[in-house]
Amino acid sequence: MELFYYVVFGAMAAVVAALELGGKSNKDRIPTSQAFNSFKNNYILVYSLMMAGDWLQGPYVYYLYSTYGFGKGDIGQLFIAGFGSSMLFGTIVGSLADKQGRKRACVTYCITYILSCITKHSPQYKILMVGRILGGIATSLLFSAFESWLVAEHFKRGFESQWLSLTFSKAILVGNGLVAIIAGLFGNFLVDSLNLGPVSPFDAAACFLAIGMAVILSTWSENYGDPSESKDLLTQFKGAAVAIASDEKIALLGAIQSLFEGSMYTFVFLWTPALSPNDEDIPHGFIFATFMLASMLGSSFAARLMAKNSPKVESYMQIVFVVSSASLLLPILTTFLVPPSNVKGGGISFAGSIQLLGFCTFESCVGIFWPSIMKMRSQYIPEEARSTIMNFFRIPLNIFVCIVLYNVNAFPITVMFGMCSIFLFVASILQRRLAAIADKSKAEDWVAMKERDTEADPLNAP
């Protein structure tokens, strides 16, 4: 493997190690309690096991389907079924978490995803389709029920609101960074070293999910959004829609999330052909691990940012979206500025090397995005409909990804990257609007508080 890959990986690993092991200054430290640290560590353990179950599957889904003899078209339909299921059934199941309980929804995630893993043993298309539908439902629960449980339980136990950012950033650092790297290497060990076949990572994923479910059942307590018997599912949907329509901050947050995640999922499909347009021999597994390390770097940096009162999340995320937009412009710029190589095979090209650095920058932005968007959701989304609203946010995202998947061969790769770059720039504009509204709301609240104080004690009025 070329030295370039090791240099990029080593440089980022050194920075991550410096940030995480070098110690934080007293200004970066947030004093917490022992009870909170135990609670945080328990959640991070569960979240890491859940993400291990998810990361183990990702690199081998397409490969497994191809070994069963299915072509690109059939596999594309299976992927579309997964995202469509997440949009339709996942939204309903995820919304039940507010009424039936978030802990119960997290257990449902484990059971649903384990069943999805079991279906991978069958080469029958219909059974694999059922597995993709179950996987889509599980994905909606993964990205709504666990966060909803955490936020509700955090405040139910009386912990400081600022401490929530510590859990978010550490969970993303470990679950979406370290665990992703280890899962990729472990999956490669099962398939290539032990020759257990492409279905073995799915069996390992089911084991991790079962362990996580046991921890949830034995250590978590139940919490609800609105357990009112008078509210059926349709009423919950209407309430969530009203909340989004009546509060511009929630609507902006949903639009920002959909634009960024839509671009992120599109990038997942595009980075391989972008780095190997002439069938260059690139180490996919090592590049994936490099991307995950870049994401770890971003989440570690986000932890530093959120530990301070300034700059606020709403402010620095504007810069993050602009940087991410610029990083996905590199494939377009290299097409026009770098002479194309017509040599088939071989190592990564000069243009590919430049793009890889840009893609690592984008993945670092992804690492900052996850804990930051979680922090903003905890501030702006009402508790009684948290899971329902969060699943509403995923509807336009899933529609967008399904459209991209369906038309992935219809447009040049530069057009797809350009579209993602535009979406990310629009997200930065919407983020700027959100920051302005948030500052205005805080200023109005401060004025109202001063007026109440003046009315309560007119002798102290200026």
TrEMBL record:
Keyword Cell membrane on entry: yes
Gene Ontology BP terms: monoatomic ion transport
GO cellular component: plasma membrane
Record's subcellular location: Cell membrane
GO molecular function term, any single one: molybdate ion transmembrane transporter activity
Membrane topology, from the record: Multi-pass membrane protein
TM region positions: 6-23, 44-63, 75-97, 130-151, 171-190, 202-220, 286-307, 319-338, 350-370, 391-407, 413-430
PANTHER family cross-referenced by the UniProt entry: MOLYBDATE-ANION TRANSPORTER, SAM (S-ADENOSYL METHIONINE) TRANSPORTER
Keywords: Cell membrane, Ion transport, Membrane, Transmembrane, Transmembrane helix, Transport
Family in the record: Belongs to the major facilitator superfamily. Phosphate:H(+) symporter (TC 2.A.1.9) family.
Record SUPFAM superfamilies: MFS general substrate transporter
InterPro entries in the record: MFS_trans_sf (IPR036259), MOT2/MFSD5 (IPR008509)
Classification of source organism: Eukaryota, Viridiplantae, Streptophyta, Embryophyta, Tracheophyta
Name of the featured protein: Molybdate-anion transporter
Task performed by this protein: Mediates high-affinity intracellular uptake of the rare oligo-element molybdenum.
The keyword Transferase is assigned to this record: no
